[in-house]
Fold this sequence. Notes:
Layout: H1 2-16, H2 19-34, H3 40-72, H4 78-97, H5 108-111, H6 121-132, H7 137-147, H8 156-167, H9 169-178, H10 183-221
Helix pairs in contact: 1-7, 1-8, 2-3, 2-9, 2-10, 3-6, 3-7, 3-8, 4-10
Amino acid sequence: MSAALLAMLGLALIDALDVLLVAITTAVVADARLRRRSPITGVLSFLAGVFAVSVAFGVCTVLGIDFLVRLLDFDLTPTVRYRGELLLGSVLIAVAALPVGSTSVPGRRWVEPVRKYPGLMAVIGFTLGLAKVPTSVPFLAALALLSAQRPLPVVWPLIVAGYCAVALLLPLVVLALATRTTPRARRVYRVLVRGITRFGPPVVRVLFVVFGIGLVIDAVVHSGHLW
Length: 227
């Protein structure tokens, strides 16, 4: 189980490199500064919405997989395990090869309609999460790893919640830096946001390839169990 937890932690850190979440966070911060208000309420409301839908989706997914496993009396044999690793590794490599658009994200358009009601950012976060979470390859891979544990850990819902919290770590760091007024904090804030916007997607691609190759190699090493 410890190996699965470490793998899930790595996937959560990859998931945290989400340019869209960082862009919306910085847009809320910029808008709040223009209006001379604190960005904390707006950003935390937005992230709470994303967190809520992520946890709900993760719990429902694990429960669904567990129900099907029990219904079909499924047994995770070495053959199934290494075939799964080969398939997941191939998918990660394929996803890394997919073309993506510009990393410039119009985050401000998510903020302007609700600038008078920061609490409504939770609705935006929830709505965005509904579109984002089901297509998040790292999250789906982490849920698959968790569901493969037999029996499921007693605290598995907390593991799902912990994953979702780690996946929001970077926007929280951006918010923490934005609330500091020291020149050093502002300088680090600008460097971090520019770096994530510019290098975030390429880093995710590289990590997908590394994880994918690792899984494929492990499956090939144990090729005797593939057939």
